Every structure is written in C-alpha cells, then in structure tokens.
Amino acid sequence: MMKEASLLLVALFVCGFLIPQSDAVPLNVHVVAHTHDDVGWLKTPDEYYYGANESIQDAGVQYILDTVIVALQQNPSRKFIYVEIAFFFRWWREQDEATRQIVKKLVASGQLEFINGGWTMHDEACVHFEDMVDQMTLGHQFLFQTFGVVPKVGWQIDPFGHSATNAIVDNLAGFEALFFARMDYQDLQIREQQKAVEMMWQPSESLPDIHLLTGMLTNGYCDPGGFMFEYGDDPIMDDPLLENFNLYQKAEDLVKIVKAQASFLRHNDVLVSWGCDFMYQNAHLMFKNIEKLMTYINSNSTYNVTLFYSTPSIYAEAIFAEHTVLPMKYGDFMPYADGPHSYWSGYFTSRATLKGFVRFSSALLHATTSLLSSSQISSPAIDATLVLVQQPNGVTTHHDAVTGTEQFHVADDYAKNLNIANTNAYTLLSEVYGTILNGKTAPIFYFCPLLNETLCPATTILPSSVVPIVVYNPLAWDRTETIRLPIPVATVSVTNSAGKQVPAQVNQGNGRIELIFTATVPPLGFTTYFLESSATTPTSTEVAPSWEPLAPFVLGNEHISVQFDAHGNIQSVADKVSGASLPLQQQYYYYISSIGPNNTQSSGAYIFRPDPETPVNYELNVPNVTVVNGSLVSEVIRYFQNDLTQVIRIYNNQWHIEIEDVIGPINISDGNGKEVITRYTTNLNTAGLWYSDSNGIELIQRTRNARADWNYTVTEPVAGNYVPVDTFTYIKDVNEDWQVTVLVDRSRSSASLADGQIETMLHRRCLKDDGRGVGEPLNDSKVLATTEWLVVSNSSSSASLFRPLAKRLYHPLQLAFSQTSSVSNWRAQYKTDYSPLSAALPPNVQLLDFVPLPSGNYILRLHHIYQVGEDSVLSQPVTVDISTILAGYKIVSVQETQLTAVAPVKRKDAINWSGPSAAQAIPVLLAPTEIRTFVVVFAANVAPKLSPISII
Ligand SMILES: *[C@@H]1O[C@H](CO)[C@@H](O)[C@H](O)[C@H]1NC(C)=O
Ligand SMILES: *[C@@H]1O[C@H](CO)[C@@H](O)[C@H](O)[C@H]1NC(C)=O
Ligand SMILES: *[C@@H]1O[C@H](CO)[C@@H](O)[C@H](O)[C@H]1NC(C)=O
Ligand SMILES: *[C@@H]1O[C@H](CO)[C@@H](O)[C@H](O)[C@H]1NC(C)=O
Ligand SMILES: *[C@@H]1O[C@H](CO)[C@@H](O)[C@H](O)[C@H]1NC(C)=O
User: Fold this and answer.
1) Those residues with Cβ within 8 angstroms of residue 4's Cβ, 6 or more apart along the chain or in another chain
2) pLDDT digits 0-9 by tens, 67-81
3) Residues in the ligand 1 pocket, defined by CB under 6 Å
4) Global pTM value
5) C-alpha distances in Å from residue 941, one per residue of 369, 736, 893
6) Pairing relation of β-strands 305-309 and 27-33?
C-alpha cells in the first residue's frame, strides 16, 4: 500500500515538477541514485570496465550497467543517472537489439538520465578548455545520435576544485545547473552558516549574461553516511520479530542527516546523492534497501519528509520553481583545501611529463581534424580512424588522468593509449597530405614525435637524399616561425616551395648538430621546405659561432635586449624601442615535500605541502655555460648538474624569451621528496597581486594570502597560494607600465609569494602517499623537458603579445618528412602549397575547431581570444564573415548550435543560414571571450583510402 502511495507521489513530481510549496508540506528529499565511475585511477579504464584486478579495487562497470538496467525495469519509480560516456559507449556496443530498445525506453521515460554526458568527468585545473570542449562534444554527440537527448546538468562531483571556465563551458553547452561536492573547507563552513552553498555563478567578466545555478553537495557525493549497503553498511532489517531489527534506527539516522543538509538550503528541497565510486554493481541490493527506508519514512508523518527518486535536473527545476533567491558567485573555486594543511595544489603539476604528452596529443588531434575538414577528405575508414584519435584524448581529460593522481601502471596505460591515438593521427595526416599533394603515387611520410628530445631519424638520410618537409599551420592566422631539427651533417641548405634557398642556421656542440630555419605558412594550410646536404656550407646557411663567456654579455633582437652575467644568469630585459629596462632574475629552487610531521599530512600526488616553507636553491653548481649567437636564434646553454640543464633562447623578431628546463630524475638520495620551481624576481610593485588563466580563457586575479569570497585564514603560506595555470600567468606593476608574463607549455601552477616575484612549479617527486586514495607516493623519476616563454613588456600591450603566443605554444607547426632525389623532382610531381582559407581570421579570433562529424557535416567553432578590457583594440567585439573565410567552399547551410553541436542555441541572433551557393554574407559577431559553434554542411566530398606511414 505504502509503496503505491509513494509511487503516485513520484508520478506527480515527474509530470511538470509539481513540487508543493506551502509551509505545511514535508521536506522534499530528491534521492539521486548514481555511480561514480572513474575512467582510470587505481585501475586502468579497461580493468574498471571488465572488473579485472579486483584485488586493487572491487569495481566492474559492465556489471553496474547490466544490473541497473534490470533494476530500473522492476520498478518504474526508480531513477538512475549515468555520467561517463567513455564507459557507457563500450557497454552499449556490446548489447543486443532487445536490450538497446529497453534502454531507449528507460531514457525516454526519464528513468535513466544522462547528466554531464562528456566522455569523462573532466578535471578543471589541468585541462585546457579546448580539450574540455572536445571531450564533452564526443559524449554529447554519442548521446544525441543514440537517444536523441541532450544532457541538462553539469555533475562535477569529484574534481578537486572548480574553475570559472568549466562554468562557462557548462553554460554554453546549455546546462541549466552544475553540482559538485568539493569546496575549500573554510569557504564551505561560512557558506553553510549563510545558506550560501547554492548560488548563481557568473564566471566570466566578459560575458556577464552567463549565470549558472551552482550547488555544493555538502554531504559529499557518496551516500548520506552509513548507507552504502553494497560496501558493507548494514542492510535495512525490517522484521520487528527478528533480533537485529534496525529500521527505526536507520530511519532516524537518515532523517537527521537529511535535515541537517537541508538546513544549509534556502528552499524546501534537498538533493541526497546515493551512490559512490563504482557502486550499483548489485543495483538490486541498493534499490531494495533504499526503498525500505523510503517507504517507512514517507509513511511516518512524524518525520515530516518525503523521499522520492529524482535526478539533478529535476532538483534544479524544483529550485527554479521555488523562485529561490540565491547569492551571486564570481571567480572560481581554486585551490581546494580539505583541511588547514591539505591544499590540493600538488596535482596542478603532478606527472608533468604526462601533462605535456596530453597537450602534445591534443595539438596533434586539432591539427588532424582541421586538415581533414578543410580538405573535406573523408571515408568510412577515415571516420573510424578519427574516433580512435578522439577517444583516448577524451579519456585523459578525466580528473584522475591528466591530474597525475592515478597509480603508476594507470599513468603508463594512458600514455600508451595516447601513443596509439597519435599513430592514428599520423595515419590520417599522411593520408590527407598524400591526397592533397596530388601526385601519381602518394609519398611515404615520416613523423618525429620525439623532437622534444632532439630526435628525428627522418633527417638521417640527408647525406644521400633530399628531405622534403610538409609544414602544416593548424592556426587560421599567417605564421612565421622558427623550426629546429637535429641533422647528421652541418653542410645543409634549406629551400622553400618556390625553389629558393632560405636563410638557415646551424648550431653545433655536445656532439649534436641542429638546423634552424624560419618557415612562413598560410592559415590552416601547409607549405614545403627541402633539406639538402652539400659538400661545403652553402652561403644561405650560417654556422653560428659559440663560446664560453668570461664576462657579462648581451643578446637581443629587434624588440628586446637581454643582459646576462658571466654565468648566463639573466640580469635585465630591455625594450629596444622605448629603451626602458627591467631588472629580472630567474632561479631554480625546490621545496622539500612534507612527510607529514605535526599534522600527519604529507605532500603527494594531490596535495602540496612543503616542509619547511622556504625553498632550497636547486642550482647546486655555478653552471658551465655555452653561448651560441646566430642570426635566427641566440641561445645560452647552462649545465648545472645531472638533473638540471637550462637553455635560454632569443629568436629573431620575437618578443618572447624561451626558457627550456630539463629536469630529472630528481635526486632523492638525501631521502627528501622535492618539488622543483622556477622563480622570476623583479622589482615591480605588484601589491600582492598576480594573475593566472582559467583553463586558457580568462585570467583570474589572485591576491596573496587572501580569497575573494571570505576572510581567509592562512595555514599553509606557500601551498595555499598556489593556483592552477594552463597557459599563462603574470605579474604587473600597479603604477608603472610593466608586465612579466610566463607562458607554459603544459598545465602547472603559479604563486607570487613576494611582491615583484612569480614562480611556477615544474616537476614533483614525493616519497610518501598523501592519503587521498591513490595509495602510492608520487615517486616520479622521469626526466622532464619543459618550456616557458617569458614576455617582458609594457602591460598595455602585453595581451596582444601573450594571447597569440599562447595559441602558437599550444598548436605548434606540424612537420611531416619524406624523401626525394631532388627538389625539382618533388616540385614537378607534387603540389607544395595548400591554402584552403580565402582569408586569415582577424588577430583576435581563433578557429577553435573545424571537426568532421560522422554525418558528413562539420563543426566550426569561433572564439574571441581576448577578454574584456585587456587590449584597447583587440578586446573589442569583432565580426567574422564565414562566407568570406570559406569562400572557396560550396556551403549549403550554417546552423548555430550550443557548444557541443547537438541542439540549437538559445540566442536571439543565432545564425541559421541556408542559401544559394552564391556568396552571401554570413556575419558572426563575437564579443570578448565568446565562443560560437556552428554545424556547416558543404556540397560535396572526396573519398580516398588509407596508405601506410612510418613513425620514427
Ligand atoms: C514540515 O517541514 C516543513 C519544511 O519542510 C516545515 O515548514 C513544517 O513546519 C514542518 N511541519 C511540521 C509539523 O514539523
Ligand atoms: C514514527 O516515528 C516516530 C519517531 O521516530 C516514532 O516515535 C513512531 O513510533 C513512528 N510511528 C510509526 C507508526 O512507526
Ligand atoms: C612542524 O612543527 C615544527 C615544530 O613546531 C615546525 O618547525 C615545522 O615548521 C612544522 N612543519 C609544518 C609542515 O608545519
Ligand atoms: C659541463 O660540465 C659537465 C661536467 O662538469 C660536462 O659533462 C658537460 O659536458 C659540460 N657542459 C658544457 C656545455 O660544457
Ligand atoms: C618527449 O615527448 C614524449 C611524448 O611525445 C614524452 O613521452 C617524453 O617524456 C618527452 N621527453 C621529455 C624529456 O620530456
């Protein structure tokens, strides 16, 4: 009887969310049955899916989905949410048609709801927004094609701190709310007192119309507490004749917990998440026990609460229906701390080599999709191969992947799968190049993914062969940039696609010969350069002189001039035009990782805790220094010790100073874990402020030892000031027109611990586990080669320098090598230049994505790369005419969608163009920071087949 009554009640709620509002009604308890399925952590994604390696963790995702589907059919009042499409996708592929029909019905009826719906639940500190968008698109496209549904709610319950950019992304995807379960313990305590754990988040300064209902699950994301039946908590024993009867006590406990949680809220509804990591492998057990409690509690009016199955989207509707007035939230929720000595600012840098590989692979994926799209070369084989590039990239956005908070064997598994993805990307690039080159037979291409370690076997054939290099520019702007390659002989000339020799520089030393030349490449296009060896040094090639300095020296170009002391330490950087000079020093230090005295908190994969607070100089020796001074690039090579080498480079015609750090294996022979930083020191008056980017979009102002939202108590003066950096971080003088910007080649972290100073953390090796679940110390013995670009300039023009530089650093020129008998032979046989766009995009607009869809259509995303007020000219709104950019294409239609290209966008000026093939303007207005997404349909396609490649 009771069950039927509660069913009726639930039915009422579902149809139109008729949640009663009068004072007389009991508290509405939205029971959200869910499972949190990490796409890798203690086990690899494969192990989790199949339930292998159970001694590490009892977790098999296939069983969860199997049993949930059965349990949902047994009782139509049951609801369940599912989140991680990387897993669901696998399971779906294995189901027969009958099961698929059942699942479709469950989705249609709302019993099974997908929320978040990305490939993974992405991390929010280490993931660049370009990767967030890609992985969400991957999941949403699958859900839309399979079920015709679009997720409505963000569910970031486990990521360790929350970014403003994620809130922007969720809003642009069309989500009406976002829920998470981790917040700084000080912030949370105050918000609970003020009933401010739910809020309206306005995450963007530039896009003030973006508001996102955001809720913190104050009880965490698992069960209410004591009700994880599947993991050994007592079942509900409800026969009063039996000795262990516990129903009343369990009901009391639950009601108490739920009411406490509701006391932090401003309305009559409360969301109770009921599930945890990999729970519901036995869904029957969970639902059965939950329902015993529900039935009893709902039947006893003394409790004055009504429990019913719900989902976060139904809960969000209830909040809207109650017209709850919520406090505003600006900025972000970084860094996260769960105790006075437990700042989760370590994972911003943990496993720096994996973080770099993620960025490298993402750039390769973007280059591949843009080239496939602009060439419109497609076939079923190409589509199938592209998926094999997209999926592993999606997986590494997971909050235990790129974060470095997984076990070692899992980190290796991610790297292995990215490597397979990259091989597939090279297959596609090779195929497309071959087709565009349009020769009788396609050449074989070689790729050199280990150029970061100065390895490129493709050039070793130089003495006997000419090496053509196809240079692709994945950005939709013209680009002139230096290319550096190891070569086997020093007497090499470089010829461009017109057959003209171009200036080249050869650097020699330490048994290495490196060739440097400048490539000029059209937007989203490629050109070809040729390397050829000769008996003597050609006149176009300069062998750069090198020496060991005995006195201070100066290196520079047309923009900057850098003063060094005799040991190669930077002393100052001058702006050549104004003549103004800024004293600046750079040094390496390390913090000793706490092993947990006093408070038992040690530094580890998640948490950064230095002990003591003062770092130690990492430069053990005065370095031996070599200076190479060439007309294309000058460099200072500084060898400090076995685990530290630095190269400082100043390029012809560039504003930035490149600093390459080669660090590791970090020496632990003294028994200490170490966390290596680079620190830039100036005399700027920065008034406690510095700036760090939020996942590559907007910058957030940070204040030392302070938080924007509350009166902050400092407990960890170093770790508590460390914030995530994905692309750039800077300090600027509050009075004078100076700014020092540091661009990073992968996600890490920064802090300004004294005025005029900024440091970033490069590499970590810790010797104790930090007690947050991974169960292994972050004993990372890898050698890291990482790059920072330092821009010293006046603050008013800084953005115009660092914004485009950040895109160049993220999306390097992509090189494909081949082999031919002579330059003229290749030029006679193949097309050497490819320039698909009729015009470059304006300097403030990035072609964020140009991606083929299986339907044969394309996603086109445009992004205004400046934020409001950053640059007097470039921060202005800008109009791009798609028909002009794509003038060479027959466009059938252009439809604007929400971010993940599955549903029309809700905006008045949405583009919905279908027209004659004759040129007709398709103007798109972009405000600062804005991202707009379109599905473009073109008239025709060509379909080639795949050919072999070689990765060396
Ligand atoms: C029942 O709970 C509601 C809030 O959910 C409250 O307004 C009402 O006063 C309660 N009634 C009783 C009898 O405690
Ligand atoms: C209802 O709950 C109250 C409080 O726990 C309890 O005293 C009472 O016996 C319960 N009534 C029934 C009918 O179970
Ligand atoms: C631990 O306590 C000692 C003695 O009070 C102090 O010197 C040290 O700085 C503390 N370490 C941390 C990490 O707080
Ligand atoms: C610097 O010194 C080390 C050993 O002290 C040596 O191995 C290395 O080759 C030297 N490097 C340069 C650039 O001279
Ligand atoms: C170079 O890049 C590869 C992946 O492309 C990575 O595995 C390796 O660790 C990198 N090397 C260094 C020294 O960072």
Assistant:
1) none
2) 999 999 999 999 999
3) 23, 26-27, 268, 304
4) 0.94
5) 15, 56, 15
6) parallel
